[in-house]
Specification:
Blueprint: H1 6-13, H2 18-26, H3 32-38, H4 44-52, H5 58-64, H6 70-78, H7 84-91, H8 96-104, H9 110-116, H10 122-130, H11 136-142, H12 148-156, H13 162-168, H14 174-192, H15 196-208
Helix pairs in contact: 1-2, 2-4, 4-6, 6-8, 8-10, 10-12, 12-14, 13-14
Length: 209
């Protein structure tokens, strides 16, 4: 049961105070009909708050998909329970910042990530490379990207397999190569159950002898 009455939340939704309407839009127990009302608010921040509310119904989110403010569409792309159909639409958004959020969402489907891995904007491809849900196939593809920051994100991805890291350790960009080499060393240490403290202690013992 909600800690606030319907009348109280409705009053907040109709308030002339922007902060009151934003608060009502954020509140997880705000009834769907009030959220629907707030989704048509003139204030971008209010509509953004509705888009971030996980209690908002699919009908409300579908309405906000075409919102004129990119921050509202970004908020939808961040949602945990956003549908694949909605993500597909946002993956083709004309604003790259929206596509970056889609590429970063851990719930984005493989087919959508595949499309975004071929995006013309470097930052979108970089987001795919950094996404922990990106497949080995995508990481391998992006390890040959012409932009060094995309390759760097591949090298940093905790799920990057060692054969890709070995390849990137010889990258033309020294930062990419060093990052890949360090990641390889860390993988080996994890596999052997060794920590940096263990190595430091062993080195100190050898120096004392």
């Amino acid at each position: 049961m909600s800690e606030y009455s319907y009348e109280f939340l409705y009053e907040k939704a109709k308030s002339f105070d922007d902060e009151d309407r934003i608060a009502a839009a954020y509140f997880k127990d705000t009834p769907s009909d009030i959220l629907a009302l707030l989704s048509k608010d003139n204030d971008d921040a209010v509509r953004q708050a509705v888009a971030m509310n996980e209690s908002a119904t699919d009908d409300i989110i579908e309405y906000l998909l075409s919102d004129c403010d990119e921050r509202v569409r970004e908020a939808i792309a961040m949602r945990e329970n956003v549908t694949s159909e909605m993500l597909w639409k946002l993956a083709t958004d004309e604003i790259e910042a929206v596509r970056i959020v889609v590429a970063s969402n851990a719930n984005t489907q493989t087919e959508i990530l595949e499309a975004l891995a071929n995006d013309e904007v470097e930052d979108v491809r970089e987001a795919v490379a950094a996404n922990k849900k990106s497949s080995v196939e995508f990481l391998e593809f992006l390890s040959n990207d012409e932009e060094e920051f995309v390759r760097l994100s591949v090298a940093k991805n905790e799920n990057c397999p060692n054969y890709i890291l070995k390849y990137l350790s010889n990258d033309s960009c020294s930062k990419v190569g060093q990052t890949a080499s360090n990641h390889l060393i860390n993988q080996l240490m994890d596999f052997c159950g060794v920590t940096l403290d263990d190595i430091s202690q062993t080195m100190n013992q050898q120096q004392e002898r």
